[in-house]
Structures are given as structure tokens and as C-alpha cells.
Amino acid sequence: MNESELPHVVLLGGGFAGLYAARALKPARARVTLVDRRNHHLFQPLLYQVATAGLSAIDIAQPIRKILRKQPNVEVLLAEAKDIDVAGRRVILDRGEPLVYDYLLVATGATHSYFGNDQWSRYAPGLKTIEDALEIRRRVLLAFERAETATSDEERQAYLTFVVIGAGPTGAELAGALSEIARHTLVRDFRHFNPSEARILLLEGADRVLPPYPPELSAKAQQQLEKLGVEVRTGSKVTQIDGDGVQVGDERIAAHTVVWAAGVAASPLGRCLGAELDRAGRVLVRPDLSLPDHPEVFVVGDLISLKIDGKPVPGVAPAAIQEGEHAAHNILRALDGKPSTPFEYQDKGSMATLGRRSAVAVLGKLKLSGYLAWLSWLLVHIFFLIGFRNRFVVLFEWTRAYLTYQRSARLILQESPGDPDSDSGSGDEKAKGGEGDSSKA
Amino acid sequence: MNESELPHVVLLGGGFAGLYAARALKPARARVTLVDRRNHHLFQPLLYQVATAGLSAIDIAQPIRKILRKQPNVEVLLAEAKDIDVAGRRVILDRGEPLVYDYLLVATGATHSYFGNDQWSRYAPGLKTIEDALEIRRRVLLAFERAETATSDEERQAYLTFVVIGAGPTGAELAGALSEIARHTLVRDFRHFNPSEARILLLEGADRVLPPYPPELSAKAQQQLEKLGVEVRTGSKVTQIDGDGVQVGDERIAAHTVVWAAGVAASPLGRCLGAELDRAGRVLVRPDLSLPDHPEVFVVGDLISLKIDGKPVPGVAPAAIQEGEHAAHNILRALDGKPSTPFEYQDKGSMATLGRRSAVAVLGKLKLSGYLAWLSWLLVHIFFLIGFRNRFVVLFEWTRAYLTYQRSARLILQESPGDPDSDSGSGDEKAKGGEGDSSKA
Q1: Model-level pTM?
Q2: Residues of A whose CB is below 8 A from B420
Q3: B143: domain CATH number?
């Protein structure tokens, strides 16, 4: 039958769930369209390393169309889904015609939430996109530069105080990496202060770090963080954030660099589906990951709230991958006129790294911390990285960083690329030519 | 004697000239301050590879303070020089107190010039900073994405037409790389068109490409560019540039991606020195590279116009390095109460690469083109790259690109990092944690 007569499967989101769903649809006799507003799939678990100058953006990102280039039934569309008309089976995009679908997979994930204090986002950026990571990197490196030219001790101390709000995996990993930058990477680079004077504060509202982890690992993680020089404060709620610092209860902490790693809200697209949502705006799906009353619509990943035998499926990459693949498997069955099957989650465990030789890991019944957990973290993340180039370069960077304490990506870029007057003082980085040549700094 | 009583040497610009001057001042019994508005030294000759997704920004950039960390008499200052008071021996910065100097080296280079048509810069960015390179990369990759969703052949052709204005080394290298992206890198990635349909036009006002090179090499270069699929047009002056294309004489070329690689103007700081300037705003210095009437002020690099035995010293990296080192040598002599010596330029030749196995090179009397020139280009550039990590990774990227035609840095980033609403549709790139974790896409 004619190409255009094939059933149309639309996937929204090129994260773990969407990407693995697209791959699982390889045998489908269908036209598959994957829509993402970014051209790249991001290996999000390593994003904090871009924010802390350990890795470059391209080390953890790959063009989605490159990953799927050899799958002829998939078309990749760079566009943003603005609305979903489940009754009319159409996805409204930011540009071009609406996409009419026979089957839809929504995997647009979640973003962080400021719990109604969105004005904080200016002063305390979150870490969800590569742009976020580059902005955090810019602020962190710039803070040390400003400390070098500070005219008073108070000013310098404010520049050397880094506050990470939220001690989930991302917050804990960020805090550990920031401490390593201050104590090792930059230690000989400045003339007017010792970078190891920097204070890294990790603030957590709950009574322990890494709340999703078993209490004994939370304790181990806090010990390791403190050994790395991080000031861990549990049970401390931030009540105010501005350009000069944060307010915690009745204590004022002067700090120019604050990172937000607390709270998560589902992607707004969840609200278009007409299904029941939980407190965090996540969609309550049926056991087969489809939408109640809409068996042709599947929702997966951080966008859903799903309990199996009363146990919630956690918001981790392996769950997203399994959900994406299972939804794809149900779409394949539907294409063959077969009924869908319920999703079963296989807990592969979870791990968080905190610094050199410091990590915690839950692998089934096994609870690891320290060196062994750190090694398994390295191996797992290298293994799951997409693309030979990235595995190779990341392994090289990590080996080098381990041996030299150096971080490659210590680049402060202007907030807005293409800044028209970004030449004077930027040095005579010479080109190879004469008059005909514009390539001058 | 006391640290603060040592003579103060101020270097403006951390490009090739400023950086090599700082290194040459290692033995100086003086306080040396290097000022740059960027935190990084840029290996400018490879910037076009960042603009064409072959290399990542960090592969060709290094933090200046990291390069100079082991030189205790040097202090690196991240600031922008706004004005120079040669009479008062002070440099006015964008922030903080003016810098009072005993000796000054001005090496703030040049930027490209739109010959009085600055409004063109919006439509035809130049290539001088990393931000420029990332912006050009963004436009090039986005043009192919837009071509995929184009609704008419005219629209698609406009997105697939790339115009490079100026056939100096940078322009020629950009055009060659763009052609390779279209014909090889992207060839299987799109479903609605064949990327090799893309047109790459290289426009040059002069009567041949690579005007600074010997005519026979210009001819060889043009042959190689045309073999790579570039449409070379010499003697064609651009009279208008807007969002839809360019006007050349009475021909209108519809194109959404235009790059400016023509024309250069010296850094505005040159005007603060009260010395005679040439047409391009470059400072006329004395044979010892100092300022007439100001033996304590040296000016080097793209900022100067210098003739030796009637032959102008070209605007190439080796000249910048030699000038920087010679000015430093004269400062060392002055510190010892010795007279300065005139600068002598050693022509190491120049080379430009055009694509795989395509390049031209002038090495002394030797004129090379094709494979041999390309090989020597590779070796020279790997050798002069600063830092083991960058040499290693760049060599790896080049080998890989040569074998697979792939380019690693195919990342489209938002124009302004930290874009507040950059979540929906960006996929559920999952993190490793639960509620406490913001690291969601």
C-alpha cells in the first residue's frame, strides 16, 4: 500500500522515552514522526558535568536525526508541540500544519518548579537544558573572576559562596563538583585569594540528602559530601532568593551564585490530554500506559504518575526507557490488531556520584557507597552514552580529570551569542590571511 | 624590593601576541597584568571549524589564567579596556580602578568591517569570536531543518543556499566546509530533500580567491573549491544584504544563510593612542614596535601597520607571535636600562585548508597545493594548538571525520542561553532522582 496510506505514529519528545520508543518502532509498518523542539537528544544524567565545566555540551548530546538516520520509517521534526486535540487526533505545532495521528506517544517530560516563586528563576537557574548548564557554568566561573577583583572581603566572600538548593541527585552532584572545582581545579589560578576558601552550601528541605534513596545511603552520601568540603544543611527551607543571596528561616546567606535543584512539575502538555493529573501535574495513565478513554494515546516518562502494586515508578532514566519501549510495543500490537499489555517495571536501581571516588548506588538488594559505587557509576554511564565518539571522549576527559584535576570546559561565553561589540580587548587572535579575511578576534 | 614597588607591565589582549608576550616576560622583575574581556585564549585559525560543527568551542579555547598559572609574575584580569591615557600612563577599564603602567603592550587586534553597512551584521554575521561561530553553526544547521519542513521549492532552495562573502582564508575554508556538510555529513539525515542539492556560493570582490596568496595558488584553490562543489564568483561586489538574500550587481540571490568574511578594521583602542593610523585604523609603529614619542608603549598584532624594507608584515598568527615576543624582549631590555631593538619578521609562510585533502600552502619558496598542503596544514595546526587535551581530541575528531564524514558538534542552541521557557517538547530526558530532583528536561 501507498506510503501515505500507512498509519501515522507521532512521538512528542526526543528524550530517553521518545527516542527508545522510536527505535522500538523500527519494525512498524507505519509512518513515525518524532517531534522535538531541540535538534538533539540530551544524556541528561551528565548535564551537571557540563554545568561544572567537566564536559562539553556536545559530549552528552547527539542530533536526534543522526541517531535515527538509518531508520527509514522515522521522520524527525524540529518543532514545538503547543497543543493536543485528542478528540480530533491532531497535534498543534508552533509552525506548519497540525500533525494528524493514528497513534500518539507523549513524552515531553518535566521541568523544575519554583513552587509559585517563578521570580526566583532569574537568580537561581535550574538545570534542565544545555543552555541552563552553560548559564550555570558561566555564573560559577565568573564568580571566581569577580572574587579576584573584589575590593572588600565581604564582596569576595559573597562571590565565593555557592548555594545549591535541593539535595536530590542533581543538587548533590552539583555541590560535590563545585567543591572539587574550588579545592582542586582552580587552586593555582588566582593571585588575590585561595579558591579553596569558597563555601559550597547544599540546602535541603527534607530531613536528609538524596530523599529517594534508602536512609543509610543518605547518611553515607552526606558524610562523603562533607568530606569533599560541602556544607550540608537538611531541614532548611529557603524563603527568599534575590541577586545578593538567599534567606533560610531567619538566616541571611550572602551569595552571588545560587542554583535551583528542587522541585519538579510535569510538562504543560499534560494538561491538554483531558486526563486526571496528580499534584505535580503528572498524567494518571492506565496500566498499559495509555490514556483513559483514548487507547490510541500513550503517555510515558516524567509526564506520568504510575503506581504498580501500590509502588510508584520512579522518575529515572531506566524507567523512561522501559516505558517508551513498552508503549511502542503496545503500538506495534495495536497495528497488528492485538490488545495491549500492562507495563511492568524492572528496577535496575539508581546511583548518584558526588565527587572523586564518592558515590552511592542501589542495585537491587545491593547498596553501595564510596569507591565501588563510584566505579559502577562510571561504567554504567559510559555504557549508556550514545555514540562511540562521546564514549571515547568522555572516558578520556574523565581519566584526564582524575589524573590532573583539570576541567576542559572552563569557558565563559557571553549570555547572548553574536554579541555585536564583542571585539575590543579580546586579543589579536590572528587569522591566516590579509585584507580579504574577517577572521579576527 | 617590595612586590608593589616592581615596575608594572600591562598587556591588553590575550590573543596570540598578548599571550606569547606574557610568556616571554617570564624572567621580568616586574608585575605583569594581562587584560582580556574574555577568560579564554582562542586558537582563531580553527574557529571556522566550530562554525561548521567540526569542532567544539572548548577544543580551540583555553582559559588564559590556566595557560599562565605557573608564571607567578603574571596576573590575569577579566575586564575590558575602554580607553588609554598615554600621557597619564593609565588604562581605563569597564570596571574597577584604572591600571597605572610603566610599560604597556596593546594587542587588542582587529574585527571585521562592513564598510559602513553595519546594518548587514544582523543578516550576515562575521566570524571573530566563539559566540559568532556558535551563531553561524546555529544558522547553518537550522537552515537544513527549515528546508525539511519547507512548503514550496522556492522556500526550500532559499534555505539551501549558503552565501559566503569574502574569499580570504576564512571565507574559503568556511565555503569548503559547508559544501562537505551538505554533500557528506547530512546526506542521509533528511526525508524530504537531498542535502547535496544545497548551493554554496563564495563571493569575492577581488579578481581571485585568497588575494594574499600567489596567483597560481589562488587558481589552484579555486579549482579545488569548485571540485568540492562550491560556486566561486570573483569580481562580484555585494551591494545589499537583507533577511531574504543578497544583491550582487543586478542579480538577486535568495538565501537565508549569509556569512560575512570580508574586510577588517583595527580595534577601536588604536584610536586612543594619539598616533598616526592607516586607512583600516591600524597604528603606524616604529621599527621597534613602540609608539612614536612613547617608547614605553608597544603596539603589536593586527592592530598595527608595519612595513619592513617596504614589505608589509601580513596579518597572520606567526607574525603576531613574533611581534608579541619581540615587544616583550624590548620591555625586558628597557627594564635593564638597555635600548630597544628593531623587529625583524621571519616569514614562516601561510596555509589555508579547503576540505578533505584540499589546501594551499606557501612555505618560503615552496608552493604546495592539494594533499601535501593539506597534510602539512594538519600537522602545523595540531602542533600549535595549546594543551595536550586539545591536541589529542582535535586529532581524534579529525581522524574520525576523515573516516566517517561525521561532525560531532551538530548542536542547535537557543540564541540566548537560559531561555526561561525552553522545556515543552524537549523530551523527558530523565534524571536519576525523584521529587528532590530538578534535573528534568
Answers
A1: 0.89
A2: 121
A3: 3.50.50.100
